[in-house]
């Protein structure tokens, strides 16, 4: 089963590498520019992914070996995740590149590792419903214990600040609900375009997310009005059928979001999870055209 765990580790890292290099991505770091980020670039993300990669294996292995409750597995991987985050910050000299992605991939890899206890030695298909349910069971306590606190910490995280100000549950809410932005929205959208073999197909997936999901990164930077504006603009760009015009519009929109200092980082994290899922289900052809 070690080959299966290694496959999961490599697939997670590969998904993050693919996501960051996709271009042009509005407001986001990609292979062409830094978007709305003055403190990070492609090589910052590269160092971050390499630092996190060994922990991806640990998440999957911990899930595969786990015999307790889903909550107990969550507590185990949270401890590993804290070490992973420290390694990431060391590699990036304190820049937060993948905090949200690290959280989500920890859950997915641990949950998939757990389901592998009952799978044959070779596999390429996972029970989506089972994994979603297990992630929900792992994280159903998060909103109550992490967000609905009587006391407000002096040093709240960005996610906690958004909950306090707007009632937005962010990544914790996504996890507790079984990642509906991924499973109910983006994957069905991408499955309608199979096989995934072109970069532009994934960029259209990003625009789909920008137009349809609650992006806590955008809201943190610009507030609700800026987020709703981006939703409307992304929806308009996504209607462009001609690929050359679509890519040109993305380039122009990148310049606009960069000027506004807006970055759809939440959408990027969901896109990375989708790429990971497409890889493990063998629905994406690499390298992309």
UniProtKB/TrEMBL annotation:
The protein's enzyme class: transferase
E.C. number(s) listed in UniProt: 2.4.2.52
Reactions mediated catalytically: 3'-dephospho-CoA + ATP = 2'-(5''-triphospho-alpha-D-ribosyl)-3'-dephospho-CoA + adenine
One Gene Ontology molecular-function label: ATP binding
Gene Ontology biological process: prosthetic group biosynthetic process
Highest taxon above the source species: Bacteria
Keywords from the named record: ATP-binding, Nucleotide-binding, Transferase
InterPro entries noted in UniProt: CitG, TriPribosyl-deP-CoA_syn_CitG
UniProt family annotation: Belongs to the CitG/MdcB family.
PANTHER family reported for this sequence: 2-(5''-TRIPHOSPHORIBOSYL)-3'-DEPHOSPHOCOENZYME-A SYNTHASE, TRIPHOSPHORIBOSYL-DEPHOSPHO-COA SYNTHASE
HAMAP family (UniProt xref): CitG (MF_00397)
Record's protein name: Probable 2-(5''-triphosphoribosyl)-3'-dephosphocoenzyme-A synthase
UniProt lineage: Bacteria, Bacillati, Bacillota, Bacilli, Lactobacillales
